[in-house]
Amino acid sequence: MVFSVEGVSIIETTEIKVKNPVLMCGLPDVGLVGIIAVSHIIKGLEMKEVAHIDSDIFPPVVVFHQGIPTYPLRIYQKDDLLALFSETALSPESIYPLSKAIVEWAKSKNTSLLVSLGGIGVPNRIDIEVPKVYGASNMQHIRDSIRKFEIPVMEEGFLVGPYALMAKFSIHQNLPNLLLMAESYPQYPDPGAAASVISALNKFVPINVDVKALIERSEEIRLNARELMRKTAENLKKMGKSQEYELPLMYV
Amino acid sequence: MSIERRPNRERTDFWITEVMWDSTRGCLEPLTEVYDNETEFIIRIDMPCVRRKSDIKVHLTEDTVSIEAQMNRVIQYERWGTFQREAKFFKYTKTFTLPAKIDPESSKARFKDGVLELRLPKKERRFTISIE
């Protein structure tokens, strides 16, 4: 089955049988937090690849794994849990149609919760032992859960990038969207921040993935994700990521 | 801030201009964050697999910073990149050219969890004037 929105196609290579699934997204963003977290969850739960995403506005990239050419943007499944992640940096031009396609595809699957896992760049990350996670949602009952789990709510401010668009499209589609964003190094891969968002996610969705192994592999991940981090940082700059450090005017 | 790239970088720039490694010298280029405020430059350098501050050498002039750091082990890739060849890395190197002069003698460095932080005070003289 192929699901297409504005030139972005989600190609299901296996029939996806789900009932009100949870979809977790790990797209290239601050500290590669979402990608590291979702990749760890996929491995930890031994999720199976069920779909990939393609578009002629994506970079002309294919990634080889164990000799097999693979699409860099893929979707994995285990029971009612879906996980989407990207192994390549995404150009600012591709973010809009991609985010729209993800949200509309999630809606078509009757997704009960679309989770965006990411990072918030903080300049004093070097002094933070366990990064704090902030939560946000378009739905009141999810915001209530965020507070119930004693996760600070992102009350004011801007969000820029793919998760910002997914949040906007989720409002339009009336799709429950949960953002979990950990304090992170702005421009370094941050497995510690990824561990924090997984721990926070566990409160909403009992995935029971141990983050100890993620921390233990921290150096290896930081080494291997350097190039992706640099390309992602360049793209985030083009998207105007610095606006996240500005104050919104509405209530001034 | 401009970053001076070492001239003996391995030739891989047939169609690209920037790679972050040089397997002929076993070097990786670290990721860096640079903050330029009114009084100082703050440079943070991510160097996973560097454990001891004694393995890091920082050389400063009034307008350059050079870093070389030994990893605690050799990082070996059996099939590095599309080359599919063996590659070994054992140190990080990077040189910065600063856009303003600094005071090397007042500069400070600290190293925590594989991240080196340099605080480099600017040398330029500052004057406060009264408003008439």
Offer a quick outline of the entry:
The complex is a heterodimer of chains A (252) and B (132). With 252 residues, chain A is of the alpha/beta class.
Descriptive notes:
- The complex is a heterodimer of chains A (about 250) and B (about 130).
- With about 250 residues, chain A is an alpha/beta fold.
- Chain A contains eight helices and eleven strands.
- Chain A has helices at about 35-45, 90-110, 140-150, 160-175, 190-205, 210-215, 220-225, 225-240; strands at about 1-5, 10, 20-25, 50-55, 65, 70, 75-80, 80-85, 115-120, 135, 175-185.
- In chain A, strand 7 and strand 8 form a beta hairpin.
- In chain A, helix 1 packs across helix 5 and helix 2 runs parallel beside helix 4 (about 160-175).
- With about 130 residues, chain B is an all-beta fold.
- Chain B has no helices and ten strands.
- In chain B, a hairpin with a 3-residue loop joins strand 4 (about 30-35) and strand 5 (about 40-45).
- The N and C termini of chain B lie far apart (about 35 Å).
- The interface of A and B includes residues 123, 126 and 230 of A.
